[in-house]
Amino acid sequence: MCGLVREAVADGAIGLSTGLIYVPGIFSRTDEVVALAAAAGEVGGLYVSHIRGEGRDLFAAVGEALEVGERAGLPVHVSHLKCESARVWGRAEELLSTLHNAPDATGDQYPYAAWNSSLASLLPPWAPAADIASVASADAARLRAAVEVGEPGFQSSVDGVGWDRIVLVTAPRDSWKGQHLAAIARNLELEPFEAFVRLLEIDPEISCIGHAMAKEDVRTIAGDPAVFVASDASATAPDGPGGDLPVHPRDYGTFPRVLAMAREGLLPLEAMVRKMTALPAQRFGLRDRGIIAAGAFADLVVFDPATVRDRATFEAPHTYPDGLSCVVVNGMVAWEPGTASIARGGRALRR
Predict the structure, then answer these.
(1) What pTM does this model have?
(2) How far is CA 325 from CA 85, 149, 302, 346, in A?
(3) What is the set of domains in the chain, with CATH numbers?
(4) Regarding beta strands 300-303 and 228-229, do their DSSP bridges make them parallel or antiparallel, or are they unpaired?
(5) Distance between CA 263 and CA 32 in Å, rounded?
(6) How do beta strands 300-303 and 207-210 pair?
(7) Which helix (H) or strand (E) holds 52?
(8) For 245-268, how does the pLDDT look when each residue is reduced to its tens digit (9 = 90+)?
(9) Are 164 and 183 in contact (CB under 8 A)?
(10) Whole-angstrom Cα distance, residue 2 to residue 22?
(11) Beta strands in 196-345 (DSSP E)
(12) H or E segment at 109?
C-alpha cells in the first residue's frame, strides 16, 4: 500500500486522503495511516482527512490528524470543519485555534448547518450495513446504544442531535424522501432506532442529511480567512442524473452563499474569493490555478457582488443561484445565460 501511495503522488496526486468515519477507513489504526501518509510525504504529498468524529470526539479526531502529520512529516488538511451536535456547539473558536496552532495544518468548510452522508455511516465499525439484520438480531441493545449514544472509539451521530434532525435523501418509498427518521418511525409504528434498522435492511445505500450544527459556529468558521470554501458535493443538474433527489442545497449554493456573506460584513469580498480560489490552489500545489495572471489557466466566474446569492433550499435544492453571468473553464465558456450547448473544458489536475 505504501508503494502504491508513493507511486500515485509521484505521478501527480496531491497526497493521501482518508475518510475515517466510512468503510473501510473506519477500521484503520493511527499507525497504519501514519505509514501511508509518510509514503505520500516522501514524494511531496500532503495528508487530507475526513476525521473520525465531529461531535463528541471532534478534538480527539483533529488531534489524530495532526499527530499523523507530525509523525509522518507532512502537511495536514482537515476536511469540512464543523462542530456537530450539542456536545460541541459553541466551540468553533477553539477548533480554529487548534488548527492554527499546529505546525502546518489547514481546513475547509461548507457553510451550512447540516451534513450529508450515508445512513450506514451511523453504524459502529463492528456492524456492517450489509449484515444489519443479523447484527441487530444478535445484539440489539448494544447496537442501539452505539448508534444513539456512542461507545469507546465510536462517536454517535444521533447523540446531541436527535432522530428528528436526520432526514432521508434517498429512500425505499418516494413518500419518505425528505422525511426525518422520527416521522418515518411513526408512520411504521416503530421506535426510531427500529425504523433505522428496517431501512438499512431494505437498502444499505440510503443517504441522509443531518441538521447537526449551530448557525453561529458555521459563521465563525466561515469568517476565518484561512479556512477554504468547499462544497463536499457532487456535480448535479435539475435535468441530469439525480435531478429528482432531495440533495443537500450545498450542491448548488456553497460558493454563492459565501460570496453573499461578504455583503453582511463577515469578511471582505476579496478575502472570500481567495478562500475559494488562490488559497486552496496554492495549498494543493495546483500551479497557475486560482489566480488571474498572464499565463495562468483562465478559470473564471463572472458575478455581480451586489446580487450574488444562493437560492437552493432543503425543500427545493435543485435551484441555481442568482448573480452569476458567465463561467469559463480552461479558457472555454462553460456556461452563460441562454447557452444551448456547453463547452467541456475541464481536465484532471495533477500537481
Answers:
(1) 0.93
(2) 38, 48, 6, 19
(3) 2-112+213-288 (3.20.20.140), 116-210 (no CATH)
(4) unpaired
(5) 45
(6) unpaired
(7) none
(8) 888 999 999 999 999 999 999 999
(9) yes
(10) 20
(11) 207-210, 228-229, 300-303, 324-329, 332-335
(12) strand 105-109
